[in-house]
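Problem 12. The chain below contains 334 residues. Write out its predicted structure in token notation.
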Amino acid sequence: MDKVAGRRKSAEHLYPPIDPFDQRMMDVGDGHKVYVEQCGNPHGIPVLVLHGGPGGGCSPAMRRYFDPNTYRVVLFDQRGCGRSRPHACIDNNTTWHLVSDIEAIREALGVSQWAVFGGSWGATLALIYAETHPDRVAHLILRGVFLMTRRELDWFYGGGAGQFYPELWARFCKLIPEEERGDMIAAYHQRLFNGDLVAETQHARAWTAWENALASIETDGPAADSPADYARAFARLENHYFINSGFLGEDDYILKRVERLTGIGGHIVQGRYDLICPPYSAYNLHKAWPKSELQIVTLAGHALSEQGISAQLLRIMDRLRFDPAMRILSGAIG
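Solution.
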């Protein structure tokens, strides 16, 4: 099955496209404004959607995993990407700024507690937010778990994943002199922030293409070049976060604080053949978090759009509609 056909088949199972009932630009301080939208039922069960990257931005397809009659779906573009401004900006842009932004959005929308839905970096941010504000999170729905550890970064940018796609790894490496290839994150960092827009864009596209090419098991070849603006924001923000180890201060930060999730239920959906975020992290998180359920999707990689991943997430969100602990968030229980 080709990649386009696979995404089309996956989309057939989603809820129909919807438009937001609310869109706003929120001034979160530090010179940043973030784009926020709400979709579905204004009085429904609130669920916050966190996109990946960092730097990926939201897409209309992300609205379609939730019954619009049941859920009040909140999406936002994190600092520096999507429709948020300034674009591709790393100033005052850390994990802790994003956690603060989430709280600002929650307060502005009058939400007391919500479910949080996120994949890849979105799962990382969801976990860190939940550990920081456990009283504000009713449930976590995570996909393609990434725990922001050195082990995971070394796997993807140190040649581990490259053993499965040696020709694509060679394309990613060829822009970097051999003597610098021992630390690809640092080597790309120099070139993504050197002030030369042409060079920055060239390296941003290479960085983005490497990740996109491995996102789905339906991919077998180099990814097409991303639009320059998207690639520059995605690559710069992702690299900025990775070279700073997520601004967490220590390795394995999330698992060391997993007891803070004790009162929070969760679902973890993980592709068996996820080369970007291998199942090892999802499994370790599940073992350490007693209230979590782990579903391994047999023939799936990393992408949200893959049929098995989408189908499992839809089933989870449809089941949660009838969970009394979730329904009470909207006052729907009687």
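Discussion. The two ends are 47 Å apart (CA to CA). Students who got a different answer should revisit the alignment rule from Section 12.3.
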